[in-house]
């Protein structure tokens, strides 16, 4: 169902209550998501901004046809061409072939690569305007690597100023309400941070530059309309400021301990280290996660806002656990800055895990504070006391 945002802007997207995984199985979306598309009716031009994911293409085009005679759409603006936004473009352009598709040069290359069609592309760059009539226009702002090279934002100077930001400022958060002031703010902000941590964190320098560039334009801003989740209507500047905070080596006073375990020895070490940290730094939040049992993207979000992490695994076949290996690979991709780390783990005979994990933590950009701690077999009371002492010493090294 279409939903009115302003007198001349209608949400024509798709709310996906079922979505539990995104980017294949890379990203969990426990609260679903939405693919937001917007129909903007100017005085002389009607523009569609973005489409929806492919599985909903027919539903999207059918509902759009109920909202408007498709032949009256003068232009389609594709702000970013990942499949969750471009997936219904083929179906739509079968109905209205020849409609101009406005996108960046990289956007055209991606659309050609994904769909192999010679559509009526109109390449745009920062500052280019699409005249909507009545003295109003849509201005394009390239935002490369937020989070793909093709990404751009679009600023509408009507209705008090509206920024269409595509993935930027989005959340995987399904809701019947369209606006941030009508949903559970705590849940929604959890999803906004998870989205940033898991999708935008690798591009923090670009986020800082682009957000500062937009702030310097001093544009009136009534709404921010992202392509996922709710629209920022109440205090839209708040998410802009939050992005600056998140993009600047964000860390709370939290230490996160992540481990895997086979027969509980490494778990006992994790809990003893946590006790030591708690004793040395009672004000610091300490959280413990079993990487094999907890949601990987929730753990990565915890790592994103931690000042330090400890990663543990038993030694298995001269290496370490599958769950820890996967998590470290994902953490490396996040390009996190100014976070400390160390490794730990139990072993029976060879005992390489902690050393290998330390090397991967360093490769992922963490400041590894020492060689970590290892315990043979199952830790006895002396070994647990050593782990507690290690937790205390870890705090002192931060
Ligand atoms: Fe929501 Fe990068 O696509």
Q: Keywords for this structure?
A:
single chain, 398 residues, alpha/beta, Rossmann fold, 2 domains, seven-stranded mixed sheet, six-stranded parallel sheet, 22 strands, 35% helix, elongated, binds MU-OXO-diiron
What is the total number of structural domains? 2
Overall geometry comes to: elongated
Question: Which percent range fits the helix content?
Answer: 25-40%
Decide which structural class fits the backbone.
Answer: alpha/beta
* CATH homologous superfamily caption of the largest domain: Ribonuclease Z/Hydroxyacylglutathione hydrolase-like
Count of individual helical segments: 12
**CATH third-tier fold name of the largest domain:** Metallo-beta-lactamase, Chain A
Strand numbers in spatial order across the main sheet:
1-2-7-8-9-10-11
Q: What's the main sheet like?
A: 7 strands, mixed
* Percentage of residues in DSSP E strands: 15-25%
Commentary on this structure:
- With 398 residues, the protein is α/β, with parallel strands linked by helices.
- The protein folds into 2 domains: 3-246, Ribonuclease Z/Hydroxyacylglutathione hydrolase-like (Metallo-beta-lactamase, Chain A), CATH 3.60.15; 255-396, Rossmann fold (3-Layer(aba) Sandwich).
- The chain has helices at residues 57-67, 83-86, 89-95, 105-115, 185-200, 204-216, 236-247, 265-280, 296-304, 322-334, 353-363, 381-396; strands at 3-6, 9-11, 14-16, 21-22, 27-28, 33-35, 38-41, 46-49, 75-77, 101-103, 121-123, 129-133, 136-142, 152-156, 162-166, 223-226, 254-259, 285-290, 308-312, 340-347, 367-368, 373-376.
- The strands form 5 sheets. Strands 1-2-7-8-9-10-11 form a 7-stranded mixed sheet.
- β4 (21-22) and β5 (27-28) form a beta hairpin.
- The chain starts with a strand and ends with a helix.
- The chain binds MU-OXO-diiron.
- MU-OXO-diiron is lined by residues 80, 82, 84-85, 147-148, 167, 227-228.
């Amino acid at each position: 169902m279409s939903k009115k945002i302003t007198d001349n802007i209608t949400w024509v997207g798709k709310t996906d209550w079922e979505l539990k995984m995104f980017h294949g199985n890379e990203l969990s979306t426990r609260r679903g998501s939405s693919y937001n598309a917007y129909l903007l009716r100017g005085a002389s031009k009607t523009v569609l901004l973005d489409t929806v994911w492919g599985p909903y293409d027919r539903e999207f085009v059918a509902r759009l046809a109920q909202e408007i005679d498709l032949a009256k759409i003068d232009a389609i603006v594709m702000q970013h061409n990942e499949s969750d936004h471009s997936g219904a473009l083929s179906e739509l352009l079968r109905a209205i072939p020849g409609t101009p598709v406005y996108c960046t040069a990289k956007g055209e290359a991606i659309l050609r690569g994904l769909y192999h069609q010679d559509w009526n592309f109109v390449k745009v760059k920062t500052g280019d305007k699409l005249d909507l009539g009545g003295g109003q226009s849509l201005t394009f702002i390239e935002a490369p690597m937020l989070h793909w090279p093709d990404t751009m934002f679009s600023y509408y100077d009507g209705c008090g100023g509206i920024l269409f930001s595509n993935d930027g400022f989005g959340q995987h958060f399904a809701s019947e309400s369209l606006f941030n002031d009508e949903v559970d703010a705590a849940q929604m902000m959890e999803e906004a941070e998870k989205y940033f941590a898991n999708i935008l964190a690798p591009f923090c320098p670009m986020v800082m530059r682009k957000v500062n560039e937009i702030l310097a334009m001093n544009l009136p801003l009534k709404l921010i309309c992202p392509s996922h989740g709710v629209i920022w209507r109440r205090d839209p500047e708040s998410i802009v400021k939050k992005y600056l905070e998140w993009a600047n080596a964000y860390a709370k006073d939290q230490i996160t301990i992540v481990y895997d375990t086979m027969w509980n020895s490494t778990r006992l070490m994790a809990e003893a280290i946590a006790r030591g940290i708690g004793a040395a730094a009672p004000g610091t939040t300490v959280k413990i996660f079993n990487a094999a049992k907890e949601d990987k993207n929730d753990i990565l979000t915890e790592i994103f806002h931690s000042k330090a992490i400890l990663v543990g695994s038993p030694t298995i076949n001269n290496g370490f656990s599958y769950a820890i290996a996967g998590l470290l690979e994902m953490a490396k991709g996040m390009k996190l800055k100014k976070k400390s780390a160390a490794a730990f783990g139990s072993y029976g005979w060879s005992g390489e895990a902690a050393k290998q994990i330390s090397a991967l933590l360093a490769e992922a950009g963490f400041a590894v504070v020492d060689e970590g701690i290892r315990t043979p077999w199952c830790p006895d009371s002396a070994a647990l006391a050593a782990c507690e002492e290690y937790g205390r010493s870890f705090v002192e090294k931060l």
